[in-house]
């Protein structure tokens, strides 16, 4: 078995995997109309990677879909990746924190770092992020997995969240922050499941 190499010291400002939970918000075709088919494919591949990673590393995963009856469920490729017992929260308010069952699920993770991605940057993502940040959570936005229907709305959403101290990252950047090295225990675990590269 390959030897592990863990950092000899690490800043408390760096994100630790054991304190993270992931929220994937409203990845529904209704909200994907503003991005190209190629972007949608890349986007869904990244979600597949993130879902698999959360399972391997035991990171709590909270999935929402806005008004499923009206807007439809999640794409099949997305659903096929989820563990069979995954609950999809049918969401009727923009901020996930504002819906009681989702708020309970967030609290039940007993973790303080919320990693958010999905749709739409300026509405559900921004409102959820600001709510969580104001309730003592550290919020990380995976900006390459977060979209609005157009660039202006996306940029406005990012600026609003930045004003509230939300951290912006990328899937690759966040993954390498939580793994902390090429031969750490976590990075070697991910490689076993072909999750080392994004």
The general outline is globular
Tally of helical runs: 8
First-to-last CA distance = 24 Å
Major sheet: 6 strands, parallel
Per CATH, what is the topology?
A: Rossmann fold
Q: Which CATH class applies here? A: Alpha Beta
- Helical content stands at 40-55%
Assigned CATH superfamily: Isochorismatase-like
Q: How many distinct domains?
A: 1
Structural class: alpha/beta
Strand and helix order: EHEHHEHEHEHEHH
Unreliable parts: none
Structure description:
This protein has 198 residues and is α/β, with parallel strands linked by helices. The protein has one domain (23-192): Isochorismatase-like (Rossmann fold). The protein has helices spanning 37-56, 68-71, 76-81, 100-108, 121-134, 151-163, 171-179, 185-192; strands at residues 20-25, 61-66, 88-91, 113-119, 138-147, 167-169. Strands 3-2-1-4-5-6 form a 6-stranded parallel sheet, sandwiched between helices. Helix 1 links the parallel strand 1 (20-25) and strand 2. Helix 5 (121-134) packs parallel to helix 6 (151-163). The chain is globular. The mean pLDDT is 93.
